[in-house]
Structure formats: C-alpha cells, structure tokens
Design a protein that fits this description.
The chain is of the alpha/beta class. The protein has helices at about 10-25, 60-65, 95-100, 120-125, 135-145, 145-155, 180-195, 200-205, 240, 260-265, 285-295, 305-315, 340-345, and strands spanning about 35-40, 45-50, 75-80, 105-110, 130-135, 155-165, 170, 195-200, 225-230, 250-255, 270-275, 300, 320-325, 335, 350-355, 360-365. The model has no long low-confidence stretch (mean pLDDT about 95).
Length: about 375
C-alpha cells in the first residue's frame, strides 16, 4: 500500500500543484462538499482539468473526465482528495474512473468521510490500477483544515475580522471607514470565500451595512446574512431588512413580541428561536451547530467588541484578522473601543503579519 513516503517526480509535483490551485479557486464556494481539484495527464500532456462545481456538484473528477476531448485510457489522474466511492446525489467518481480506463490515480489526502475513507484505494487497486497517495500532503492537508473541522465538529469554520484605529477605536460617529481601500478589498474577498456572515443587530443599526461582496463580477457570491437579534430590534429601514428574504437572511431571536415576529415573517425572513445563557447572551455554540445543519460551512463574523470578545473567550474563531489603521480617531464624539488584545494573545498563539505593500494598514492573522 502506498504511503506518504512514496517517491514522486517533479512532473507529479507540478500536476498536483495545479490540482491544488484549482481546488483553492473554489474554496468556500462548494456548499457542503469540499473543494477538489483534478488534473488528467496522458503522454506528459495535460488533457483535461476539473474542479468541484459551485454548490458542490458535479465533483472535480467527473468534471475533468467530461471535459476531456480525448480517450482517457492509459492516462494518470491527479486529485487533491480521495475520490468518492458511494452513491449520493451523484454516482461515485470511482465508477467513472474505472469506466474510462484511467490507469493511474494519485491523490494527496485521504477523505475523513467514513463512507469514503480508505475505501477508494481498495476499489481502484482491485481493478489493477496503480494508486498512490500523499503527494504534497502537508500543503494539501492544511488546505482541507476547514473541511476536516466541519466534519469533526459539525460546525462551520469561523473567521473573525475587525478594524481598529491606531488608538484602538472600532467606532466613531461620523467616520464610515477606519482602514483603507486595500484592506476593504480583503474584507470583500473574505465575504466572497465565506458562505455566511454574522453580525449583531447593534452593529447593523449603527452602521447600516450591506454585508455583500463588491469585488467586480463576484457579487453573486455574497454571503448569507446571519443576524443575532434577541428582541427583533433591527431597524426595518435598514438595507439588510429591506433586501431580506428567506434565502439570504437568518435571524436568531428569543424574546421578541408577537407583533414584531409577524412583521419579520411577512418579510419572508427565516427566524430561528434560540435559547439564551444565564447572562442573557446567545449560546453561540448552539447557533453554530444549527448553522451547520442549515448548510453553513464557512462563517465570517464581522462583529463589534462584545460579539468578537464572546467568540474569542470561547475560542470559537478558527482564525481572526485584526486590521489596524495608522491613524487615530477622535474621542470627542460617540465612540467604541476594542479591548480584546489580551484575550487574542492568550487564546491564539499562532499569529503572523499579512504583507500589505499596497496600503499602510497593519493586518495580523491569529490562528488556532
């Protein structure tokens, strides 16, 4: 049986790197399924490529096979994750691989799905195919950390983000943007790569945000809006309320009066009643479990100080982006500060500076 110690050629490494690039391009856009990249090679020529389809189907291997204009007999397939071998909403990829007489399969990482794990290798080898695994293992297993976290914990992989001024303020009445346009583009990229975005009703009422992705051509990938609003105090003149429907907005509440519940339901918003902790806060872990059941796999949290602190203290962020402007904000008008630096350093030991040569903001990424 092949192991991570298998010898791979420079060409093997090149083809698997391309497969990883294909998978990375679709990360966060494949719904409940992991993003996979696939490259098919014959006589040292790439004859086809494939990625997991948007929302998770078709799978990368199926797409690569169907994209080929040549016979695949005698070819080699490079794929980032172990091919599936069971019937679900689509036929198993192993069946397509066998049917097309592909001779050699190289995949990097074994799937953690119990229906798949290790079984594909046995199925393919039983058909006298050459099967190897482990190529670019460290790089690719790191790429699949969010997927493995989803499967193990039945919760979305959570990314936090907050912007602070040089003097650690996160809100100043009359100032719409704390950081520069280059940092804003990173925020919109994060919105593009996460299927859902959470804020509290307080942040919504203060900022009246759109919470969409405004990178050119990518608006259709804007995340679903998740609002924590115990008494349904959201401003009904806000952009989020005006544009809300059952498909793009979920609100978690507990103690709203019936009249407000009726208003929100008539709007078509998906309301979920959720229990509170003794201190009156939502039980965030229960909410994350519910979001997973609803199909959320990658959640971005753009909260204020209180919501961010709650996630940080319970170590519910898998990663956290701290943007810091080189400019101070005034404390002469209404303002709010950020006081989670100590908690961040205690809870998240791994941190690194993000290179921002285009702008003057400092961006630090904290990770588990």
């Amino acid at each position: 049986m092949s192991t991570r110690k298998d010898k791979f050629s420079k060409k093997d490494k090149k083809y698997m790197s391309l497969a990883l690039t294909l998978a990375s391009a679709r990360h966060g856009l494949t719904g409940e399924n992991p993003s996979v990249g696939c490259v098919i090679v014959k006589n040292d020529d790439i004859i086809s490529i494939g990625q997991t389809g948007y929302n998770g189907r078709p799978h990368a291997e199926y797409n690569a096979i169907k994209n080929s204009n040549e016979t695949l007999e005698g070819s080699t397939m490079y794929v980032t994750l172990e091919p599936c071998n069971h019937y679900g909403k689509t036929p198993p990829c192993t069946k397509e691989i066998i049917k097309n007489k592909i001779s050699k399969i190289i995949y990097s990482v074994e799937d953690v799905d119990e229906k798949v794990k290790g079984k594909s290798l046995k199925i393919l080898k039983s058909k006298n195919m050459i099967v190897k695994k482990g190529l670019h293992y460290e790089r690719i297993i790191n790429f699949y950390k969010p997927y493995f976290f989803n499967r193990k914990n039945k919760m979305p992989y959570v990314t936090g983000k907050i912007a602070v001024s040089k003097n650690n303020l996160i809100f100043n009445k009359g100032i719409k943007r704390i950081t520069d346009i280059h940092s804003d583009k990173l925020t919109h990229f994060l919105r593009y790569k996460n299927d859902s975005l959470m804020i509290s009703y307080k942040t919504l009422n203060e900022d009246n945000p759109k919470l969409d992705c405004r990178l050119e051509g990518l608006n259709k990938f804007s995340p679903k809006r998740i609002i924590l609003d115990n008494k349904l105090e959201m401003n009904t003149n806000s952009y989020i309320f005006r544009t809300a429907n059952n498909n793009n907005t979920i609100i978690f509440y507990k103690n709203a009066i019936n009249a407000k519940i009726s208003v929100f339901k008539k709007k078509g918003i998906y309301l979920i009643k959720s229990n509170l902790l003794k201190n009156g806060d939502f039980d965030i872990k229960i909410i994350l479990k519910k979001l997973y059941i609803l199909g959320c796999r990658n959640l971005l949290v753009e909260g204020g100080n209180i919501l961010s602190k709650s996630f940080i203290k319970k170590k519910l962020f898998n990663q956290f982006y701290l943007y810091k402007s080189p400019n101070n904000l005034s404390k002469l008008v209404a303002y709010k500060d950020f006081n989670c630096f100590k908690d961040l350093s205690l809870k998240y030991k791994n941190k690194k500076k993000i290179n921002t040569q285009l702008g003057k903001d400092s961006i630090t990424l904290y990770k588990n």
